[in-house]
Amino acid sequence: MTDLESRLREHYARARLSDSRIEQILAATPAKVTPPRVWYARLGSVAAALVVGLAVLHFHLIERDITTRVLAEIAMNHGKQLDVEIASGDPAIVAQALDRLDVPVRPPGQWPARYALLGGRYCSIQGGLAAQLKLRDRESGELYTLYATRLTPNLEAVADTAIVYDDVGITLWHRRDVFFALAGSRTPRAWPPESD
Amino acid sequence: MNDEDLLQAGYRYALSLRTRADDADDLVQEAWYRLHRHGGRAGSKAHLFTTIRNIYVDRWRRDQLIAFEPLETVDEPADSRSAIDDVRHDARALARLLDSLRAAEREALFLNVVEGYTAQEIGDLTGRPRGTVLSLIHRAKRKLRQGLAAGPVQPSLEAGKRKGSAS
Fold first, then answer.
1. B111-160 pLDDT per residue, tens
2. Alpha helix (H) residue ranges in A15-150
3. Whole-angstrom Cα distance, residue A9 to residue A12?
4. Most exposed of A21, B2, B8, B74 (fewest Cβ within 10 Å)?
5. Over the stretch B64-111, which tens digit does the pLDDT of each residue have?
């Protein structure tokens, strides 16, 4: 091994995700989706009634888990406060720049006056491409992040909710085929209804 | 390989594509979740690397958020030997030199030297001919050796534009 190669290995060996970051990622890891045929094989000998019962139970467990995972991921993304990739105060410019998303990057309607838009970037929610808009409350100066991603069957199971998770106030809701989340101060805040 | 080792390996690979720690963190997080969402195959390092690479291509290369750079842009390190002479052989100097490489060179070098992939295996992962991979590795090593021998290096066109566009 040459000196250069050993130095390269040392360089990359020093690059590590922190233990807390690993824990965050693993905590928000989506449940594995087992191929249906595997379920059929496993449940083939079970009575139909039991299958239905298990399916109902399974649905409720998944629903509860997906909500927790989404909340954990939103709180994590908000806490990272990454720099915006598109720095603009114009929602239309940010939306145009984030054109890899096939859904609107913000709720419809007029932009609420209480928030100043700082810009946007791509992020992910449960493995799907999402937009993250960074906002500043004009009165309090607090930073908020607004998320939008396509409503998948998994995300459909997430009920509209407003909750504090990991010291971040988070509001989750969906409208038509878009899943939205607003994260900010410790008090969950709804997107202003007058903008709808 | 357990989940933590996989994530660490994915993070290092992501750093070979995007030298910004935030970007690498984001890449490995999204790839991890995407793999689990689509059948939970994150147990394989090859799958994780492939997914990280696909996301990288989707997010940065196809969006042209990083600029195209001619092949030989940074062959010769900058000739400014005053300020960082005393740290030319330390980790920061190497990090800056790595930052000055083209992403394709850095990726091929990482996979070959750190992960132990053969040129053929790198070609299979990246979709490049074996000869191109060998050339990328050779060129990357040559630039690093020249840079380490000469002293400080200025960030390349790619590194400069990437930082500007991503922040």
1. 999 999 999 999 999 999 999 999 999 999 999 998 888 765 554 444 44
2. 19-27, 36-43, 48-80, 91-97
3. 5
4. B2
5. 544 444 444 444 444 444 444 444 456 788 888 999 999 999 999 999
Number of domains observed in the structure of chain A = 1
Q: What is the rounded distance in angstroms from the CA atom of residue B52 to the CA atom of residue B30?
A: 8
CATH number at residue A66: 3.30.200.100
Class of domain B85-166: mainly alpha
The torsion angle over the Cα atoms of residues A96, A181, A62 and A18, rounded to 10 degrees, is: 90
**Chain A residue with minimum CA distance to B19:** A15
Interface touch B113/A5, C-beta < 8 Å: yes
- Chain B residue numbers with beta carbons less than 8 Å from the beta carbon of A15 are 11-12, 15, 21, 24
> Residue A67: phi, psi to the nearest 5?
-65, -45
Q: With an 8 Å Cβ cutoff, is B14 touching chain A?
A: no
Spell out the domain ranges in chain B: 3-61, 85-166
B163 and chain A in contact, CB less than 8 A: no
Tokens of B120: 């053929």
